[in-house]
Amino acid sequence: TELTPLKDIYEDYFLIGNAVSMAELEGQRLDLLRHHHNLVTAENAMKPEYAYNANREFDFSDQERLVNRIQEEGFELHGHVLVWHQQSPEWLHTEDGQLLSRDEALENMYTHIEETVLHYGDAVIAWEVVNEAMNDNPRDPEMWRAMLRRSDWFDAIGDDYLELAYLKTREVLDENGWEDVKLYYNDYNDDNQSKASAIYYMVKELNENYAEEHPGELLIDGIGMQGHYNSGTNVDFVRLSIERFRELGVEIGITELDITAANTGELTEEEEKNQAVLYAQLFSLYKEHADIISRVTFWGLNDATSWRAERNPLLFDRDLLAKEAYYAVANPEEYL
Ligand code: G3I
Fold first, then answer.
1. Which of 24, 163, 225, 303 is most exposed by smallest CB count within 10 Å?
2. What pTM was estimated for this model as a whole?
3. Secondary structure (DSSP) of 139-175
4. 6-335 belongs to which homologous superfamily?
5. Average of pLDDT values for 236-248?
6. What sign for the dihedral angle of Cα 8, 179, 288, 244?
């Protein structure tokens, strides 16, 4: 019996996405991907380190093969990611290990953004411009600049590196007539209220600054809530974060959803049920906020290939068969 496609169930609400590598674009994995999803994110291939060859020259050949397949299959593509402190080439230090000057680091950041944005053009519907820039549990969310993660980007450029990254991305898109590509800020622990609050103040200030010169326009169009949850997650906190972000007038993308079980190894019946209930609570919440939630993307197709495989966080099992969690997403009301 064919399962009802999730993308059909949620057609009037939001796009349904998944994270892919080449392995998801062939055979049985492609069948499952196509059946339920209309959007994809490259799980790794579009991160900065994969855009360069060993001589630090731009080389998008691997991505091109992936993106061509994605387009042939008719999926929308969500861009992950331009500026991150992980999975990036070693371009912030000199050969003897010194951190670059602000000007040198900025030039590297701008070059990366410009080349990458020009390369993809409007083949992406959105770019996560900056990923995971905020500390966990910031003490004083309103002082968001002081709460930023002390990454090499921060150390080399300063607390304005985010704003400059968004301005550069916006400029390259505008110059080329790609105004429809949305700019996202993306982060995890999005249910943590002090972190959500710091992100709120950051997006608020950067968008207010931008609006002074561009009345009525947004610099940051959307907030990506990664959604890497676990069996102890309280969906009421996810709700509070969504309600908070709503005040900013931005859209929300659920960008990397998965929910781990309490234990490693095969799921017990109870664990599978608990996981399903959490998925149902989330989708019921997402439906309530569907006017601002643009997309919900799962971070992997099935448990076997998840980055947290040992805790079985996804909708399909090792044999690609639907778990209780699939039925909960398909019919949340029955699981509440
Ligand atoms: O491609 C190499 C391969 O050549 C090498 O032999 C192998 C040996 O370790 O590593 C392979 O690279 C791995 C890569 O995934 C591709 O499979 C890296 O080691 C591994 O660290 C990397 O993990 C990814 C992780 O980001 C890195 O931070 C996960 O697949 C990916 O799911 C995960 O995704 C992140 C999001 O980008 C941001 N938010 C959190 C999320 C989960 O950590």
1. 163
2. 0.97
3. S-TTSGGGGB---HHHHHH-TTHHHHHHHHHHHHHHH
4. Glycosidases (3.20.20.80)
5. 98
6. positive
Does 43 contact ligand 1 (Cβ within 6 A)? yes
Q: Tell me if 44 CB under 6 Å of ligand 1.
A: yes
**What value, to the nearest 5°, has the Cα angle with vertex 283 and ends 76 and 5?**
50
pLDDT digits (tens, 9 = 90+) for 269-295: 999 999 999 999 999 999 999 999 999
DSSP secondary structure code for residue 70 in this structure: H
Ligand 1 centroid distance, CA of 184 (Å): 21
pLDDT recorded at residue 1: 64
| C-alpha neighbours within 13 Å on the C-beta side of residue 319 | 4
- Residue 91 is encoded by which pair of tokens? 């371009």
pLDDT value of position 95: 86
- Catalytic positions: 256
Question: Which of 22, 43, 255 maximizes ligand 1 atoms within 8 Å of its Cβ, making it the mutation to test the pocket?
Answer: 43
| Domain map (residue ranges) of the chain | 6-335
Say how far apart CA 160 and CA 231 lie, in whole Å: 36
Q: Please give the distance, rounded to the nearest whole angstrom, from the Cα atom of residue 110 to the centre of ligand 1.
A: 24
